[in-house]
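Notes continue from the previous slide.

Worked example: a multi-chain complex. Inputs as given:
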Amino acid sequence: MTLLSKSMDNGCFSSPRHEAFPAGLRVLVVDDDPTWLRILEKMLKKCLYEVTTCCLATEALKKLRERKDAYDIVISDVNMPDMDGFKLLEQVGLEMDLPVIMMSVDGETSRVMKGVQHGACDYLLKPIRMKELRNIWQHVFRKRMHEARDFESHEGFEALHLLMNGSDQSDDGNIFAVEEITSIKKRKDADSKHDDKEFGDHSPTKKARVVWSVDLHQKFVKAVNQIGFDKVGPKKILDLMSVPWLTRENVASHLQKYRLYLSRLQKENDQKSSSSGVKHSDSPSKDPGSFSFLNTASNKQQSDVVIDSFSHSDESLLQMDAPSHEGDLKRILSEPTTEKRRSSPKSSQMSLNQPFSSVESSEASHAIFDCTIQTQYSWGEFPKGPLKEEQKTTVQLEDSFSQLPLHGTRHPIQVDQSQSIASINSNPSITEEEVAPSLDTKTLYAGYKSDYVSPVSSMGTVVDTFPKQSKSLIPNDQSPEPIFTSNLGLKTDGFDVDCISDLDFYQRNLLLCGDAASAPLEEDLNFFLLQTEWYNMNFGQQNIDISECYDPRLVAEAPGYFYDSADYSSVDQSLFIA
DNA sequence: TAATTAATAT
DNA sequence: AATATTAATT
């Protein structure tokens, strides 16, 4: 609060009331298309911002020069007759150093990149929605915060921290505080370098790292399954994935990781089954070294076995480990650990790269998130032939599901995830670095693909900001049953098919299908599930442990807040970063 | 060679 | 830990 108010008082905004903070933000909108100008103006006003419009870049520049501090932020189209949007961006950066948001109809990577690299704080794709506009104030705030930080050093932050951790959750008006903080942290790394003067449009600095987002990973898995476990190779996978920017090396690397993950799972599974007495007719002894899970057309017979093993492994991962580490968890949470935090020199890399990669992936595959049932095949041409067989598989799966302890497991998974997230958020020790890169990234995400991004961010947000929500939507504990059933039905219709690499995926798909039909809220929920596999792969048991410390009820709250979206809050990223 | 994989580096 | 990069292997 302190810091926040301070920066606000700094005279940035015309409106004096802190409560109204984002209200009164002075936005200059530049677009040669009067229609868009009107639309934007309307939307921005809805956000209670003070809007000034102009249809020429030169005019905008003139206005800005006239009164350098008459505006807080600039939103400019990229394509304009009189002056290139990038040029304007450059000028603004040079002369008044206001945050600039670029927008355009196409999301061509190079352009987006150019914009961002040259200092645009965000890049929105038209049509722009309220969602995207609501958050723009964050850029302003961030910047200010940044500036303030220079002299204030740490003290301010410390104070903020305390405040946050102590009471933010209960505060109603505290949304800002939370977000601020997060954003602040992030920015620290992110903005340090965007003074590149040289534009041209080529300063790839360094190659972006590929971020294996959930959907990208899903594509990957689909491809793997299609090809057949025994025949997989990076090249083939790459081809099937048809993600242009991805390289064979990228895939190879990911494949390596994936194999590691699978073998780990199998190991766990074996362990489990042997010790616990649960047994499946016979474990997939056949391929010890390999990962039997793939029930591709070629080896479907194994599918049930595979699935079985997976479910078990899941269980073990999620359920077994958690309890054992309780002590550790608590320790982690309670102690302001300082251990490994100070190491975020490369965060900048993240903020820049992430957005792009995500863009790409979303372009390539909105599939899962967007809707429902079908898009899934959109990106790749699947051999429809095996479908029949696939369905069969599905059925089998169904069986195994109902029989196995899966139901119980299912939800716990969700809980765990969200909980862990929550924990990250609230945990004082983690805050600084871990969360850092998020704001930029998330905002960018929003612009590109809000569908994809928002769910994630929302998770974090939920916890902090929206404590109350409909619990009914989420089956807290054992209610998973119904969901499953319905999902199964849907799925059988035409969905699941190829992507059944493992249990998690399978489940995810099921849920997706079922929910797809339902409400948006559920969509978000699905996201949780969707991430499960990916999550496990990346974090394994660790996080789960942590999550144990939290109250499951938190999860229930999550959905509600999803809608709000207004904040692609920082927390989201923590999930990825960890 | 080109692709794959294990190992190693960042 | 996640991805990249290298180097050996096929």
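Summary box: Residues 207, 209-212, 249-250, 253-254, 256-257, 538-539, 578 of chain A lie near DNA strand C (CB under 10 Å from a C1'). The two ends of chain A are 26 Å apart (CA to CA).
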